[in-house]
Design goal:
- It is a single chain.
- By secondary structure, the chain is mainly alpha-helical.
- Helix 1 packs parallel to helix 7, helix 2 crosses helix 8 and helix 4 packs antiparallel against helix 5.
- The two termini are 33 Å apart.
């Protein structure tokens, strides 16, 4: 369909890629540790939604422009790096013991929205993800196919679904590990702040990474 070939190999390779730890996985794990499995699942859904940006951009050729233009890549890279640093600082500064007060339900709802939005931008503003879509997906599309854009969308959706499933597994596993260690606020705060620091380091690394 749409000139897609070797679909089984595509799915298997995509699962292996999505299982590899990266900024998305770190974000899911941190939210699971601080907010339980539900927080990790919300983060995974936000990241999955961010993938739609890359799918749409690649399907209409914007990702190719991003790969060809050093200036465009640098701009997106710096925006993504800045957001990673911002997210890391937010994790470090926002975890307070007073979150466990009587207003917890309202705080949890706001936190859920924040987790989702952060997950979305963590993925959508990462140019490495855009370039991965451009480099990986076309290998499974027949060059003679007249429906390359639809093939890209179809494969992109498959990759997003498998990636979301993998991130949800990470969310469940991280939540179980956090529960095993204990539910002390201090332990959860240290975990969240530690991953926040990793996000800052990832943002700095992305900002100074080679464009090639």
């Amino acid at each position: 369909m749409f000139g897609i070939h070797d679909l089984t190999l595509f799915v298997f390779s995509g699962i292996l890629f999505n299982l590899a730890p990266g900024p998305d996985v770190l974000y899911v794990v941190s939210r699971s540790a601080g907010h339980g499995a539900r927080g990790g699942v919300v983060a995974a859904l936000g990241i999955g939604t961010g993938c739609f940006v890359h799918i749409a951009a690649a399907a209409i050729g914007l990702t190719a422009l991003l790969a060809a233009s050093a200036t465009a890549f640098t701009v997106v890279k710096l925006v993504g790096a800045a957001y990673l640093v911002y997210s890391g600082l937010a994790m470090i500064l926002s975890f307070r013991k007073k979150d466990a007060t009587a207003s917890a339900p309202r705080t949890a709802a706001a936190s859920g929205r924040g987790i989702y939005v952060q997950g979305f931008f963590t993925n959508a503003l990462n140019p490495k993800v855009a370039l991965f879509f451009l480099a990986f997906v076309p290998q499974f599309i027949d060059q003679a196919s007249p429906d390359k854009a639809w093939a890209f969308v179809c494969l992109g959706l498959i990759l997003t679904c498998t990636g979301t499933a993998c991130n949800m597994l990470y969310a469940w596993g991280a939540a179980r590990m956090a529960a095993g260690v204990g539910r002390a606020v201090r332990a959860r705060a240290l975990c969240t702040k530690g991953v926040g620091a990793l996000f800052i380091l990832l943002g700095v690394r992305l900002a100074f990474a080679d464009n090639s």
